Structure formats: structure tokens, C-alpha cells
Amino acid sequence: MIDVSEKERTLRVAIARAELRVSDEVMALLSEGRLEKGDALSAARLAGITGAKLTPMLLPLCHPIALQGIEVAIACDAKAGVVRIETCVRALDRTGVEMEALTAATAAALTIYDMCKRHDRAMEICSVRLVQKSGGRSGDWNRPGESRASNSGKSTAKISTKRRSPAPSKGLRTP
């Protein structure tokens, strides 16, 4: 494990996304909240939060970090047949939160898969990726062609590194 004790504590923010391709039947069940196992979207949000908090236990070389905020937004895009997940993790620490954001997105996607597999075993987690990160020595990074959605549904180019309380992700709405 890398020694980070000499690094300065700075605000670290990371945004990750995942997509889960599902059948029309599963999309309808998710959108209407009719799954036998319960509300998969709420369960996935909780799994994402839990996943971010437990990242150091799952990935042996990740430092334990005191997380200040975790957001998990999930949207069903029936037209595309895709469930879109966006996570945002914040911490004031000596190391980044990219792995926590990626773990949160993955845990949320796996939870939806688990709760829907009876209806569609062909579901596919087709993308898990870091979208943006800020803070630390390496500074900001934005994945080309992607940015965080705003309230208006239009994209913004950067994430704010100002401290703020966690709020629901903008632009992604649940059905």
C-alpha cells in the first residue's frame, strides 16, 4: 500500500457511471415498481452507498477514507432499454475517491441485476467508467465526451470542488 501521509488533505470528488441493458419486461417492472423482491431502484441506491463505504474491504490496496458525501442517481431510459446509474463521492482526504465511485456504480448495477434476474438473465452491465475526478496533485480529469448533467438536462463541463452537502444528482430522475 502506498504511503500517503506526506500528501496534503484536499477535497476529492469522483463521478462514475454504469449502464445496465435490460429487456422491455424488466424496464416496465422497474418503472412501475412491480418486482416481487421490492423496489429495486431504492435497493440499488442503498447498495451503491454501501459499496462506496466498503471499498477498502473489497479492494485490498485501497486506503480507508472518511467519505463526506455519496450520491447515487438511477434513471430508467425505456427508449434505449438501459438503466443509467451515476455516482458521486466526496472526501476531504490525502487520496482520491475514484475507486469508491466506481464500486458504488458497480454495486448499484449488480443489485438491479440480482433483483431482476428472474425476468431477464440476459441483462448486461455494459459499461462502468470514471467520468470525472477532481482534487489532489494530479488535479482535475474529465472523460472526453461526457460530463455531469445539470437540472436543465444540458451537460456541464466541470464538477464543482467547493464543499457542499450531498444532494440528489441533477439531471437523472427515477421513474
Task: Please tell me about this protein's structure.
By secondary structure, the chain is of the alpha+beta class. It has one domain (10-142): Molybdopterin cofactor biosynthesis C (MoaC) domain (Alpha-Beta Plaits), CATH 3.30.70. 26% of the residues lie in helices and 27% in strands. It is built from four helices and five strands, in the order E-H-H-H-E-E-H-E-E. It has helices at 24-32, 40-53, 55-58, 98-116; strands at residues 10-21, 67-77, 82-93, 124-134, 141-142. Strands 2-3-1-4-5 form a five-stranded antiparallel beta sheet. Strand 2 (67-77) and strand 3 form a beta hairpin. Helix 2 (40-53) runs antiparallel to helix 4. The longest helix is centred in the middle third of the chain and has 19 residues, at 98-116. The radius of gyration is 16 Å and the shape is elongated. The N and C termini lie far apart (42 Å). The model is unreliable at 150-171 (pLDDT under 50).
Question: Could you list some keywords that capture this structure?
Answer:
4 helices; 5-stranded antiparallel β-sheet; Alpha-Beta Plaits; 5 strands; alpha+beta; 175 residues
Summarize the structure.
The chain has 175 residues and is of the alpha+beta class.
Summed over residues and divided by their number, the pLDDT gives a mean of 87
Q: Are there runs of 5+ residues with pLDDT below 50, and where?
A: 150-171
Give the CATH topology.
Alpha-Beta Plaits
Helix and strand sequence: EHHHEEHEE
Approximately how much beta-strand content do the residues carry?
Answer: 25-35%
Name given to the CATH architecture: 2-Layer Sandwich
Give the class from helix and strand content and strand pairing: alpha+beta
CATH superfamily placement = Molybdopterin cofactor biosynthesis C (MoaC) domain
Count of helix runs? 4
The amount of helix comes to: 25-40%
Gross morphology: elongated
Note the gap between the termini. 42 Å
Q: How many domain units?
A: 1
Biggest sheet record: 5 strands, antiparallel
Query: What spatial order of strands do you see in the largest sheet?
Result: 2-3-1-4-5
